[in-house]
Amino acid sequence: MIKCSVPVFFDEQFLGSLACGPVLLWEADEIARRDLARFAQNYEISESNTNEIIDCVKQLTPENMRSAAKMLSMMVSYMAKEESIFLKQRLKITKQQDKIAELMVEKRINAVSLETLERRNKFKKYPYEMEKELVASVQSGDSKNSNMILNGILGEIFALSSGNLDLIKANVFELTALLMRATVDAGVSLTDLATVMKKVTKILAEDTEYDELCLLTTEVLDDIINTLYINRFKKQSSAHLTNAINYVKQNFQDDLSLETVAKKVFVSTYYLSHLFRDEMDMTYSDYVAKVRMEAAIKMMKSNKPSIQDIAIETGFHDSGYFTKTFKKYFGITPKKYMDLL
Amino acid sequence: MYMQDISTQLQKGKARDVKQLVQEALDAGISPVQILNEGLIHGMSVIGGKFKNNEVFVPEVLIAARAMNAGLEILRPALVLAGTKSRGKAIICTVQGDLHDIGKNLVKMMIEGQGVDVVDLGVDIDSDTVVEAIRVHQPNVVCLSALLTTTMMNQKAIIDAIRKAGLRDRVRILVGGAPVTAQFATEIGADGYTADAASAAEAVLSFLKV
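^ Those are the sequences you sent over. The predicted structure of the assembly is below.
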């Protein structure tokens, strides 16, 4: 006879459970009666009584039972007013462990023969190939594939470490360190990986069990993939910015209108001006002026040409406009500045 | 074809039909091992596959398992050598935290089929119970089954407990279960690992010979 039950949590405290049943999932045939009679012997219940009992029990089909269980579960979560975080995590953990076990079994079945597997295992080969695959998959931002490879690696680590939890933790720690290195290599700063580091510390903690450790590693993996994704966005925009900046620095004596430079680096004027404002905290024209003024100063210090020449060399058609810009930037006129040198 | 019918009825959870079909197949002279593998185990693996894919759920697995056990009961006298002197004694259980028993039941039957007495401790068995059972029953072999990665660790715990109780050299230890491997078995200090019920029975026999 079968019951289904749902645990009741409140404030992450286990209060008890609600159960519904017992029911029979099959007919009250002679097998069922005999099994119940056997069981009841321990409780000194006679056979005629067990027959009475079994005749009173409701019979459900498997589909009915599933619906009943679902309804019970919905009722409980409504009453508890919130889904237990603990339960949600346990569900994730169970699903992941199932996947890991599946991969381990697959590997064993796919081994050409059991001896081959044993021979391979004798050399305790760490799955370096899979690690490489994982890094490549992470860098391409494929979360689903990365998680699958990770589960495979976790299974291998488990098998290699023969259940030695400390050894498993050390191996997993090394794996996360490898991923973090790949991430920093890609240009992410360590401060962006602060939550990752916290989780890695939890992985090494003494009270962390194997299944929780697997879940944490999965979370570390997803955090890293997300961080890389965000960073890639930043990187792309900074590539455009870098190109624009380089162009301005190399061509300050020429026309540097927003239209011209935007065309040169293949972006829109709108995007370019926003890039400067967001990343450099100044308008595009301010930046151009800055570059030109710094160039002017350099020229003044080196060979003391005339103000007219400097104006032309820094891209100003008009020496009057050059003087005006210079004064605005440095607070004194170019002539006075040159006298000071 | 009997095998197909047995498998199909098992998947539907029709215990009585499976019982009847297994008996008919035996009467028709089909080998019990074939009935077991191509009929019963086949049906159970199909259900197992569907369960993994969320096509069926726990209730369906329960009724299929029931049908499996019903069929096994009929097969048992054909598989177990009747009237032979006992060749030895074995203890079998599923480790703590694990409730899977179909594999264990199969192994138990195959071992009994080789003329070895088997004490079945059941499922979700902790180290203390195993140690106590060794003291009480004094078996030659201890068989530990685990189907989850998390409960595999308990196989190690039980072996450690047996060692701590000073009983390690009195028994040979065999481990098994889907994710278990030969290397894992060696590392945790077991005497052997087998991938299925038939080879488990052979391993037990080889332990008894030494």
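Chain A is about 70% helix and 5% strand. Chain A has a mean pLDDT of 85.

Shout if you want it in another format.
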